[in-house]
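Quick question about two entries, pasted in order.
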Amino acid sequence: MHITHASFVTLPVADQDRALRFYRDVLGFEVTADLLMPPGRWLQVAPRGAQTVFTLSGPGMGDFELGSARGIMLVTTDVDAACARLAEAGTEVQGPDDHPWGRMAAFRDPDGNGLMLLTEAHQ
């Protein structure tokens, strides 16, 4: 096999517009697709330049359980500033804490999907 990358990660959301405001306005992601198609809206966002995008999957776009996505690690150059931005936007953040691999924090999006932030340790 020669797999080069993951195309997208599905994030189940109740309200795509609310999720879009969070991922675009708070996390700074860009919209990579916003199409109306049967059975609903195909909405994708990603950090600038990322190969893997996030599909904000609303009602009718699959049999997904809200808040079921977990363990999604987002790398940032400044986890402390990112945590401050999240807190300023009303998002509860756990951490950041120091680990051998870097400084890390955890938070949930408005639908309960679990994400983490990491500033990698310099080796």
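Here is the second entry:
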Amino acid sequence: MTKKIIVKIPELLKRHGISLRELSRLSDVRHAALSELSNGKRENINFSHIEKIADALSISDIREIIDLVEVTD
């Protein structure tokens, strides 16, 4: 089985009661980049973006932001 990293942006937005645009403003990460991460359309994850999201939302555990899941081929 293959593993895939999932960026849990939809869950973060819901938990913090903010929009994607607001997260973009708070984290200083482009809205388009956050949208691609949120929709799983980004092949590579920029970990500076993950750090900025963590800082913006006062998250200290990376597992709140990303998850590793098994994907069946």
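Reply: The longest strand covers residues 2-7. Strands lie at 2-7, 66-71. Hope that helps.
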